[in-house]
Amino acid sequence: TIRLLLLGDGNTGKSSLVAALLEDNAEPAKPLYAELRIPESVTLNGASCTLVDTSLRVQGEAMIESEIKKADIICIMYAVDDTLSFLHIASNWIPLIRRVRQS
To answer: How far apart, in whole angstroms, are the C-alpha atoms of residue 19 and residue 88?
Structure first.
């Protein structure tokens, strides 16, 4: 199983992406902060995938760090209409990932 972690500031579309896969729509979603398992029967390479939705505010840094350690792939998301969320990729998210993965 491939574990794909969705990271980023609030309101960057992490939960909306997961909801779009669940509900077959792209409407803004209520926060999920959950895991979504995509079965191998619907993936191109036959591997199952687990999408992990996150919220630093709700789950706290310790939980996010735990998820970073377990992730096979990390997708850092930002909102194209929010410059600060883009700047936080370099100032917050990448340093956090590096610190956690190097420990």
So the answer is: 24
- What is the percent of the chain with per-residue pLDDT over 70, rounded to a whole number? 84
Do the beta carbons of residue 17 and residue 28 sit within 8 Å? no
Number of H-type helices and E-type strands within the chain: 4, 4
Residue with tokens 């410059």: 83
Residue 85 buriedness (CB in 10 A; 0-12 / 13-18 / 19+): buried
The structure's pTM equals 0.83
pLDDT at site 21: 74
Closest CA to 34 of 54, 61, 4, 11: 54
Instruction: Measure the CA–CA gap between 32 and 51, rounded to whole angstroms.
Output: 11
| Tokens matching residue 69 | 């350690």
Give every CB contact of residue 29 below 8 A, 6+ residues apart in sequence.
15, 16, 18, 19, 20
